[in-house]
Design goal:
alpha+beta, 2 strands, elongated, 20% strand, 4 helices
């Protein structure tokens, strides 16, 4: 069975017109599936990506960037995890191939 939704439009405040959108009854399930996929992508970042970054960009690895980091940010140290390297490669260029892959 199809559900019908009537949507009213007011064009430039002068006249009112409407049209009908017909959606299948399964449409809420499609929206739910999309929401679940979005949540999955978000959670994978915490389960997979963050632990991998913490393993690759550990304190020993990040120590090689202390001098350069202190030049521009004197009161801080390079962050464990390699942040804010978001893919431009400032830190990851120095990774061994095995850790980079």
């Amino acid at each position: 069975m199809l559900q019908q939704y009537v949507i009213d439009l007011i064009s430039a405040g002068k006249s009112q017109s409407s049209f009908t959108v017909v959606l299948p009854k399964e449409f809420p399930m499609v929206c739910l599936a999309g929401l679940i996929l979005c949540i999955e992508c978000f959670v994978i970042g915490f389960i997979v990506i963050i632990p991998a970054r913490m393993k690759a960009f550990n304190e020993v690895f990040m120590a090689q960037f202390k001098e350069e980091h202190k030049k521009f940010f004197p009161d801080t140290e390079p962050a464990k995890g390699g942040w804010p390297d978001a893919g431009e490669g400032r830190y990851s260029d120095k990774l061994p191939y095995k850790d980079w892959v």
